[in-house]
Amino acid sequence: MDESAEKGFEEEIIGKNELRDKTNGIIYGGGYLLGVVALDNLLMSKDRFEIKYFFVSGRRIKSLAFLPGDSFPSLSDICPSAKLYEREIADMFGIMPLNHPDLKPLMLFPENWDAAVHPLRKDYGGVKCIGPDFKRYGEYKYKKVYGDGIFEVPVGPIHAGIIESGHFRFSLRGEPILQLEIRHFWKHRGVEKLCEGKSLSEALKIVSRISGDNSVNITLAYLTAAERILGINVPQKVKHIRVIFAELERLWNNVRDIGFIFMDIGFNLWAQNLFVVLEDILRMNKSVTSHRYMFDIFRIGGISDTAYIDGAKAGDIAGLLEKVKDELKKAEKIVLNSPSVTDRIELAGKINKKTAQELSLCGVCARASGLKRDTRIEIPYLLYGENIKIEPAAFEEGDVFARTRMRIKDAFESIKIITSLCRSLPGLLPEAETAADKEAADAASNTIAAGIFRAGGREAIGNAETSRGNAFFYISTDGEGKIYRLKYIDPSFRNWPAIQYGILGDIIADFPLVNKSMNLSYAGNDL
Question: If one looks up domain 191-525 in CATH, what number appears?
Fold first, then answer.
């Protein structure tokens, strides 16, 4: 196997002054930014800092890697989706992106953090700040809109209900929104730092709880990277069952989100009908995995003992899916044919294709704006691209209407995949396990047992398609096979900036609807 297949990407080592030209070439060739990872090699006897820009280019992932020293050229003007990654690197490593247009703190609030503290450096001593003494170090500067009649409406970070912390600052004159500035990371948990020094198995429990409603697919992205580092090829049966659980999670998320959209336009009856089948799916999840949100159902190289689907359970799942499909068909009919619905969701929260391209959007947000981006198609994993063929789909309108229809289409696709896999599952049950499956399972067990040697000084990436879009992991290990650097990029980190453009010209009353149609994760974003 070549090195790029082992790691999941191919890498080009460049000088930092080549970065802009190389990036332009990739973007003009139809590629887009997948993520940016910075590393501190202080403990690895290498040059101190390293930065890797990951791009999707065709059906492959390419990394441009370079040594930045204490600064590097910003890409924000030619690749706007790089803007937040570069602010993050300045915060967490103290490496400055030169000519960045908005280099204020992103994760480390200046009210609480000394600007000289950079937590992801290897010499960071673990001291955050002296205490919650606001404005001890500085003040966060919000963007201002000037002119007669301009006023601001700050919302959050504490909200009514049970949603997480996020601050939204609207600038208006009259009713139309002229500017929205989002400020997140109020509950940054330090997930990446927490995983350093842990074994690949120990970190699994942490990363599976980054964003609870996408636990299954985020875990799959992590496992893809971890199993590459360990050299594990999981048996076909394991791939089969993992895809069933991945699609069940995608399905219940989309059913919930469609229901929430109905709630926000006052169609409570149709919302409650969807919430009934949502509850049925969550109860089915618990019956086959012992957890409604399917936590801890995977282990490195396999499936946990708590998760099991036999022939009878497969039949129960298939029966439930018929009920879900019927309810979704009714919801689709209302969305397409009710003037009261279309009047609220057409043209609201419109994100045009050019904006989606520049921000490197993913998932529903990308596909509803004309970009056919789906990790299962672009970067196939498990059975995707082999036994499972998914037709690329997109809508051009980019509004709440398009995102609602995209979620319905995704839900039908999940039902189709799960139903097909449940029908073929009996031939993959333990009693029908082939000699090849047993050999692969034994090899995985042996690799894990000797993983401290196999995993030493290696790196790999993993990707999976969550209900929100691409989940990305980069993992590198030290000489003992422990995690040296773990980087996770949630689809919400990529997609949150888009709402600042989609809401322009709308009114504040539209914001909850637009926000819900994207339904991004605060926890996944904040890490």
Answer: 1.10.645.10
